[in-house]
Amino acid sequence: MQYGNSSASDGQSATVVWNNGYRAVWHMNEISGTTIADSTGNSWGGTPTSVTLNATGQVDGGDTYTGSSYTTLPSGYIVPTGSTTWTFESWIYLDAAVANYDRVFQQYNSGSTSFELYYHTGKIEVVPNTSGASAADPTAAVSLSSGQWHHLVWTRNGATDTLYLNGAASSTTVSGTNLGFAGNYIGARNTTQNLFNGRLDEMRISSVVRSANWIAAQYSSMNNTFVTFGSQQNIASGGSTATFTQSPAMAKAFTIPASGTIGLTAYLSGVTGSMPGSPAVTATLKKGTTYAAATTFATLSSPTYSAGAGTLTWSGSPAAATTVAIGEFIYLDITNNQSGVSFAVAYDSSTKPSAISLPTSTVITVDAFGIFDAPYPGGTQVSSVNNGQQAYIRATASDPFGAYDITSLDVTITNPSAGTATVNLTSTVASTSSSKTFEYPWTSGPGLGGYSITAKANEGTEGINATATTPLQVAQQDLGTPSITTFTDSAGNPVTSYTTSGPAYVQVIDGDKNTDPLTVQTITAAARSR
Known about the structure:
single chain; mainly beta; seven-stranded antiparallel β-sheet
């Protein structure tokens, strides 16, 4: 974090913030005008009618709907046509006047992906309809009380619906009946029916399935509980020490060999006094479940100070081979014994990348990788599929520093006839404290034969990754065609009769001419007298 620097550049970038599968984001923080803006730049801004702008919201203002209000959205596919994966999220405040079947949101496209959320008997119920019919039944619900803000998230993954309330998975029995669709609206079914009574804020739609950890982080970040701030630590001369603690704790055992080299770079700010090139500043690395019980595994002294770069750098080795166990933290003490000098340590990943480099072979790993015939959490692992069949490429990666340090997964598909294609996955279908599970729905083909599928799990920003590869056979699906059967003589000429006790010859012509060169096809014939 930078502060106290009026000349620092503005790092905001909507294209960077909203590029991870986001289709539409309505902050609903307009104080005037005739548009509810879409922050993604995807042109899904809406036109409000009788909506009260700049009402009290959860995040910097919201919009009030009074039972005679609605917002009309452009027609088309916010969630892409034919999609069965999406995430809808919104802060919702129900007024006492909220009525059964009041619509929170609706997307309707005849013949394609449609969905909606509505109020019914103390619940918000959700209705997916990937075929785009004009009506469908609700599939999941969650209870909401009136008079307070709730963060609601709905994920759709294939045929699986999951609802989250205030950052945690939650669901109740569905009690609604078949509901109709009529267009793209916020707060209404159409301009006259099922108009919402309440307030809405920070409504967002993605074309990917967000993980439970991601949803919990979203709730915390918009509820001011995600990040806490402490005071700046100035390290004065005379043996003052500042302590930095790894967070979260190790999710897997982490081994540091005795023969490795530890590197440490600290960017300094607020330097006072005359800092020599080799100052008396010591860095001590410890491990343990608490600082009070931590043990030292490396002490680094005699750093090099660069006035131009504003850095202190240390290099050294651990006292012995060390394993940081699951649940333990790494602590860094920086102690200033340089007379007449004080400073603070600055750390920002892009401008002040203070960092510790630890030697280890314990890094990100791909623990499970395979091809399945149905989406997570179901499906059976397969080694072959038919051309044109839907398959699910699934990989689980783990990391000693925790799931947060697993940034993405690259899936590379090598087609024996059409080359290589790679897709980058950032959204997950499952996660634990140490792992993330990614899944890529893939329609096999068009080439036939042996494919090679590779998963590359990426860690942090250091360029460290782990890979796994599995073969897959893609075959032509032969559904059969009408055949032509002819009685012939030994030369293949058609005949209408045979001599008694003589041989009979039968010719069968397959209509698809055996288009699958990978499969030997046989015909079993049986003869009987009448």
